[in-house]
Write a structure and sequence with these properties.
The complex is a heterodimer of chains A (about 150) and B (about 200). Chain A is about 75% helix and about 0% strand. Chain A has helices at about 10-15, 25-30, 35-50, 60-65, 70-75, 85-100, 100-110, 115-145, 150. Chain B has about 200 residues and is mostly helical. Chain B folds into two domains: about 5-95, RNA polymerase sigma factor, region 2, helix turn helix motif (Rna Polymerase Sigma Factor, Chain: A, Orthogonal Bundle), CATH 1.10.1740; about 105-195, Winged helix-like DNA-binding domain superfamily/Winged helix DNA-binding domain (Arc Repressor Mutant, subunit A, Orthogonal Bundle), CATH 1.10.10. Chain B contains ten helices and no strands. Classes of the chains: A mainly alpha (about 150), B mainly alpha (about 200). The interface of A and B includes residues 8, 49 and 56 of A. The structure holds zinc ion. Zinc ion binds near residues 5, 28, 32, 34 and 35 of chain A.
């Protein structure tokens, strides 16, 4: 019999899956009770490891986590408040325009059509940029709050 | 969609719903991954008092960074990765043993010496011939990372690729750690077997 035992790595592989052994290794395994016993011991060990009780949380992880989730969500769903100033400003602007329509007519009557169009476009663009900046700042602040969320719990 | 239909959702549909503000979809993610997260936290961190905080931190991290999830792995694997990293950071902060140093010392210098587990409890378990409890006790002697790898591979039956994704370790390292951990378990069991004639 070849006295050189199989490596521990080979024995573990033999116990866990089918391994292509070299002819001399195969011959050794057939004639060596010690190596065969080691393979059996590893096979038993792997079987026992599989059957070990699985760790589980001794508390209700779902409740623990979910009680925090709506708090974060609340901030996200709060975004509709951003549209509230617009709801106030738009009718107010329209009312002002209607009330002061004659003065406005007088003010802009001297202006050619092109300049008028440019002026209106620029005003709309400025308003949109302002609104975009407002939303971006809000999101950034929200993100900061959420990043610090665990410490706030 | 009825709440019972939520269970039919794929990872992609679930993430989509959560990002759309559906908290019930996230509840389902917690239910689906709880066992795997408990396995990792339970094996990495032996101090059970810290488990609630860690579990909460893991899921809140997952919830907050869900927008960055790119579906390169399964959602459960991604949450397992967050669990592993969170536990790893916890151990690093507490300066607890992480790598295989404990394992190597025991194997190379005192291969057959009983170590961390106290002899009294081992004797007691040997009298009871409770091999599962004995094996569990031997598992506790392994360093946290090896203990986790053994449980992910043998209990959760994850592939090497999935374990590598979760732990961010190269496949060679995972295989090597697994090999050494199993040898240590075998050696310890053999020693106790001889000692107690189990
Ligand atoms: Zn042999």
């Amino acid at each position: 019999m070849n006295q050189l035992h199989l490596s521990d790595q080979t024995l573990q592989l033999l116990a866990s899956q089918s391994v292509q052994l070299l002819p001399e290794e195969e011959a050794h395994l057939k004639s060596c009770a010690q190596c065969a016993a080691q393979v059996t011991a590893y096979t038993t060990l792997f079987g026992e490891l599989k059957l070990l009780p699985e760790p589980h949380f001794s508390f209700d992880v779902e409740a623990l986590v979910m009680e925090k989730i709506p708090v974060v969500k609340e901030h996200r769903t709060d975004k509709w408040w951003l549209w509230l100033p617009l709801l106030v400003i738009a009718p107010a602007g329209a009312t002002m325009g209607y009330v002061f329509r004659s003065q406005l007519n007088e003010l802009f009557s001297g202006l050619p059509g092109l300049e008028m169009a440019l002026g209106i476009t620029a005003s709309v663009c400025l308003l949109m940029l302002g609104a975009y900046d407002l939303v971006r700042n809000y999101n950034q602040r929200l993100k900061n709050i959420e990043n610090n969320f665990p410490s706030a719990t | 969609m009825k709440p019972s239909d939520l269970h039919l959702l794929s990872d992609l549909q679930l993430v989509d719903r959560i990002l759309g503000g559906d908290s019930q979809a996230f509840r389902l993610v917690v239910q689906r991954t709880e066992r795997l997260v408990a396995q990792i936290v339970g094996k990495m961190i032996t101090r059970k008092e810290d488990h609630p905080d860690l579990a909460q931190e893991i899921y809140l991290k997952a919830y907050r960074s869900l927008g960055g999830f790119r579906f390169q792995a399964r959602l459960s694997t991604w949450i397992a990765q967050i669990s592993y990293n969170t536990c790893f950071d916890y151990l690093r902060k507490k300066k607890l043993v992480l790598a295989g140093d404990l394992l190597e010392n025991q194997e190379e210098e005192h291969p057959l010496l009983p170590s961390a587990a106290d002899e009294g409890s081992i004797e007691k378990m040997m009298v009871q011939k409770d091999r599962a409890a004995l094996l569990e006790s031997c598992m506790q002697e392994l360093p946290p990372v090896q203990r986790t790898l053994v449980s992910l591979y043998h209990q959760q039956e994850l592939s090497y690729a999935e374990i590598c994704t979760i732990t961010n370790l190269p496949e060679g390292t995972v295989k090597n750690y697994l090999f050494r951990a199993r040898r240590q378990l075998q050696t310890r069991l053999l020693h106790l077997h001889k000692k107690g004639d189990l």
